[in-house]
Design brief:
Chain lengths: 449, 449
């Protein structure tokens, strides 16, 4: 290897590393060839050769009359996973095997790097701001928060949440909102409000593995609807299943689905809701990741926007974006189910923790939430990009990857013949917890994810 | 009326008022006749006549060689309510009428004096101490609390709660405890852990009307067990019912039962647990008022102490004694049901609010809890005495009253022919919410309470 060859490869490697570690962001412009020539004391042709090398491996792209840019990471740059289409699903009770307990234990074991859940790292959350709010809390304010609250939650917090529905939920008001102990309680109350014993719930396949736990504990019978890694739940498949199966309720995540990261388009959302409205089937939408979009500056639409029959129940929380430990979520169940959800809330947890509601309302009122969210989205997107690039670099050929447009989970399809459970066990030996695809379904699918 | 007669009556009236408003406490010694003779410039015989008058109406009592004492308010000084013993109860689904919604609305309406629930007034709770703890919270500590916690709850808080079980639960350790969103969530998780659809739950009659709400929302079938205003649930009646009815679980409040205030003796507790152990029937005990005893200085025993088969699930919280708004309760379900309860907790509310757990653990660790509890018990007891005396003074003859030995509820039986619902409506017109007895049962009993 002559010296010149060594030099351009060395430069290409360094730039590549800096792209992978997020120094250079997807879509960002790189220094020009002329700038690098001067700054690094390298010949124009050495720098040019390095850029060509990076272009070849797909890390950067030349834009005419503009220069070289870090290539935006998108579904285009990876081959997306392919879900096998099997026989139409049959309703079944949820039974989970030992793998699930192992994953749950691993997630909570100190010293293990948990990549098995979509938890946001505390360092990325506005804990300093919350600390400052607590320091200003007077004894008189504490006296107001120490007693029981009403089941629907703090009025000011509900108003702040209602303000944030601008543009995605025209009819929402503070009155429509019920504060819950996280999004999980919201979903669980809505499920219990709609389902009677023996009823069938339609869910996405794959789905959030925490939901499967819940379904098992509540004894809910489910039917799985095929769900596309990019486009979300398949309305055609759902329609077919509805012809044979008496589904009483659906639970979907239209925005940045867990675990796929799929984002349904507005057209798909509208079509889905029209189908369910026509059959008078209630649908619970979990929008917990709705605020974690990577593209543009507005959050994606809700199923609720297309609802003509008051059958969509929207659930969300601040657990991915502000403070998981505060356990503040909410349900907007619509007039039809509001009373029932509220009575369930009053009967099971009485009200949501008052101090946390107060601190969150103060945080939202002071206007720093938007700034925090913009910065959080950028950081999560950087992490996502880094991780996706690392998977591309280190995983064997044949690996497929759906890089999502939001959320915080990467759905990876292993090369043919590889087993997610084996990879899970091997990773765990190295103190890393991942989520084997098989635990995201009740039917043994997704073994190679 | 001659002047002398006027004088002794005037004195009797003044002392009576001071007893009713708590200036002189039940059991407290009054100034001696000689002292009052000197201090008030009244003749010995005038003071003596006043004391005789007060003795006659039952407010004070003479103790040989000691003097006059405010009569301890106890079941002895009131005629206790009499529960009609009807036909053996049949299992039934819980249906609640409009009265319940009215009570719930009234409880939460600003401007209405709520005497319908056992909520402790915020002014009696240690809100200043909690405010001080929050002011010392560092950003680094907040960073630790802002993320998700484990479903079973903060380890230090569990340890603090375990320390407090000394003397009432020999086997309890931090490991055995699951932190919940108040006692309600603890009870609700235990119920769901044990009951399948269609199963029958045995409950006390009357019972906490919030429980009935929960049973309705969860679709639980219940059978009511007669419960004595002083001695608690009737084990004989339960035994009879068990002969005919397949009961899968019981939910009882052995200590200061809501709404009766009944305290079961150790003997009755032991007998009850022996009966249920023998038949392998799990029992959930709600001990939320266990710390609110008025007599002696140790909390009453738990059913758990008599449990030989790991079938008693103990639930409690700090909502009556420290901070209802923090929503911190716990379940100690025993080894048999621990995993199931924990999975339900993880599936429905994931974990209990982290900040609240931390603040509560700090409060318990600094040792001021005992002092607060002693003072709280005394204040609640004073309120209870005042209210009982007011009922005696202002309610019509024939009123019966169980003055409890703990807790914060008074169970009043109206004279024959009076209707609790009518009284409820009349009180509500005057902006006072009371609890009509009929909402504490599913069988239309207790209309005159």
């Amino acid at each position: 290897m002559d010296e010149k060859q060594f030099r351009y490869q060395h430069l290409a490697e360094e730039i590549g590393t800096k792209i992978r570690n997020g120094t250079y962001q997807p879509g960002e412009k790189l220094p020009s060839i002329r700038q690098l020539h001067r700054r690094l004391q390298l010949s124009i042709s050495t720098v040019y050769q390095a850029f060509v090398e990076l272009e070849t491996v797909g890390l950067i792209e030349a834009r005419p009359r503009s220069g070289y840019y870090v290539r935006p990471v998108s579904l285009k740059s990876f081959r997306p996973p392919v879900h096998a289409t099997g026989k139409p699903a049959k309703p079944r009770k949820v039974e989970l095997d030992g793998m699930v307990n192992s994953v749950l234990t691993a997630m909570h074991t100190p010293g293990i790097l948990s990549m098995a859940s979509s938890a946001t790292a505390p360092a990325l959350l506005p804990f300093r701001r919350f600390t400052r709010i607590l320091k200003t809390l007077s004894a008189a304010e504490m006296e107001k928060r120490i007693g029981y609250g009403v089941p629907q939650g703090d009025a000011e917090l509900r108003r702040q949440i209602a303000r944030r529905t601008l543009g995605v939920m025209p009819d929402a008001s503070a009155e429509a909102i019920i504060i819950t102990n996280g999004c999980s309680e919201a979903v669980s109350l809505c499920l219990q409000a709609v389902l009677s014993p023996g009823d069938i719930l339609a869910i996405e396949a794959p789905t959030h593995f925490g939901f499967l736990q819940l379904f098992r504990e509540l004894g809910i019978t489910v039917v799985e609807i095929p769900t596309h890694p990019r486009d979300g739940v398949d309305a055609d498949a759902l329609e077919e299943i509805l012809k044979q199966t008496p589904v009483q309720c659906c639970l979907f995540m239209p925005n940045f689905q867990n675990p796929l990261g799929a984002l349904m388009s507005d057209e798909r959302k509208e079509r889905l809701v029209r189908l369910l409205n026509r059959r008078e089937i209630p649908v619970i939408e979990d929008d917990i990741c709705g605020e974690m979009f990577f593209e543009g500056n507005r959050r994606p639409a809700l199923l609720k926007q297309f609802d003509r029959k008051d059958l969509v129940m929207t659930c969300s929380s601040f657990s991915k974006t502000l403070a998981p430990g505060f356990r503040i979520g909410w349900a907007i169940p619509g007039k039809r189910f509001r009373e029932k959800v509220l009575r369930l809330k009053a009967g099971t947890t009485v009200c949501t923790a008052m101090l946390d509601q107060y601190v969150m309302a103060r945080f939202l009122a002071d206007g720093s939430a938007e700034r925090h969210l913009r910065s959080l989205r950028q950081k999560i997107r950087q992490q996502m990009t880094k991780t996706a690039l690392a998977v591309e670099q280190y995983f064997p050929p044949g690996t497929r990857l759906a890089v999502p447009r939001g959320g915080s989970l990467l759905w990876v399809q292993l090369p043919r013949g590889a087993d997610g459970a084996t990879l899970y066990r091997q990773a765990l030996e190295r103190k890393i917890a991942i989520l084997p695809g098989v635990v995201c379904s009740v039917s043994g699918q997704f073994r190679d994810y």
